[in-house]
Amino acid sequence: KIIILDFGSQTTQLIGRRVRELGEYCEILPYNKFPYDDPSVIGVILSGSPFSVYDDKAFRTELDRLRGHLPVLGICYGAQFIAYTSGGSVEPAPSREYGRAHLTKIDTTSPLFKNIPVGSQVWMSHGDTITSIPEGFKTIASTDKVAIAAYQVEGEQTWGVQFHPEVYHSEHGTQLLRNFVVDICGGKQDWTAESFIESTVAQLKEQLGDDKVVLGLSGGVDSSVAAVLLNRAIGKNLTCIFVDHGMLRKNEFRNVLHDYECLGLNVVGVDASEKFFSELEGVTEPERKRKIIGKGFIDVFDAEAHKIKDVKWLAQGTIYPDCIESLSITGTTIKSHHNVGGLPEKMNLKLCEPLRLLFKDEVRAVGRQLGMPEHLIKRHPFPGPGLAVRILGDITPEKVRILQDADDIFIQGLRDWDLYDKVWQAGAILLPVQSVGVMGDERTYERAIALRAVTSTDAMTADWAHLPYDFMAKVSNDIINKVKGVNRVCYDISSKPPATIEWE
Ligand code: XMP
């Protein structure tokens, strides 16, 4: 495997995903936690960082224990760090370099640049630049502005690149990573959905034996794939519980329950909407809504799970990005997303997380390989508290009905216009305002709906989706004509940051 040492860059996870896409297993670890004793490591990548190498607070790692022992590739800060600690100079660039650049010179004999043509576009994002490299270092690529865009340490498998090969805008970035991972490190590229399923099913059988396992389904991709994988390993010893808190999408509970049954899962559907509606009555504060729903979910789930005799394990669809130990650089919580936090402790069950090594796109690939239907696999992310955080202000069954109807028109429209798979996530939001309108000869004073659709790769950053005007006109018309109580539709054109995807 490849180890990616994280120095706090925004794109560290992207490096991990690119390496996995090459069929090579990798793990992301904090910069100071390299597993020196692990013989399966075949190479190391050092990520970028928000710090400058000469900052007092800059993250450092013991390079002499890596260099010369394993192939090392430094990206951005990683490259600067290797050069700087060997006596090179790194200085603030005259102007922060951000965006596209082209490699005007490349050492085409260098294995790192195999099959990468001169002129190839790369993505730069740095405030500092390497102004001189130490003796024994050799420049192997340059751009117009950056003389030392890439280097190799002579006689050593140690490399540095100033640009970011992991981002899509770096045209031959994947080729560069392949050159490093496969040619330089000797990666076997044997990490596939098929091999993952085979080894995980075997491990689960071994780990769980005849034990009973309970799993909470949400309708989302992760918990669904976890369930199907476990079902393959232990069959009827797995019981899935799907709780309807009353704030799912229109008909979602019924449809998804049906999907699960078709997949052969042993699933119990619990309609607990009344409990949730009564607990949420009059609550307007977003974090309180999340807490009430989180706790209510645990109560319902716990009661259901107790009906199963001798259950020993709680399975969850936790995926790799939730497990990566993050370096706390700012340390503020914007929203609390962990709806089921506290569940394992309360239930006194052992935890089984069969997807904890996978990135989202790998979860989808595994789901496909397991024969799950495409509409389950490609389903947009949906927040655990559901429409509760899309109804601004207090929640009533009537408001949920209005929002479900509007949301359904929007989502169905996206599907009909072939736009559903082009956006990361979409939904409607019920605003806590009324506005004046006119229908026929009548004055109306009704609610406003906001539509939100975003493009993203990981929900960390997002842009509003530039949906066609004709589509928006049709959806707006349909909502106002068909959903009683709504007379105005707006489209949210904020990016994240500074906005977030959900309104609450
Ligand atoms: P934000 O609004 O923080 O959302 O930009 C990022 C992603 O997280 C989802 N989200 C949630 N998911 N429980 C969840 O399970 C929550 O409380 C929650 N809040 C936001 C959101 O839908 C988006 O995909």
From TrEMBL:
EC number(s) from the headed UniProt entry: 6.3.5.2
Binding site for ATP: S218, G219, G220, V221, D222, S223, S224
Pathways involved: Purine metabolism; GMP biosynthesis; GMP from XMP (L-Gln route): step 1/1
Catalyzed reactions: XMP + L-glutamine + ATP + H2O = GMP + L-glutamate + AMP + diphosphate + 2 H(+)
Keywords: ATP-binding, Glutamine amidotransferase, GMP biosynthesis, Ligase, Nucleotide-binding, Purine biosynthesis
A GO-annotated cellular component: cytosol
GO MF, one annotated term: ATP binding
Record keyword Translocase present: no
Function, in words: Catalyzes the synthesis of GMP from XMP.
Designated name of the protein: GMP synthase [glutamine-hydrolyzing]
Gene: guaA
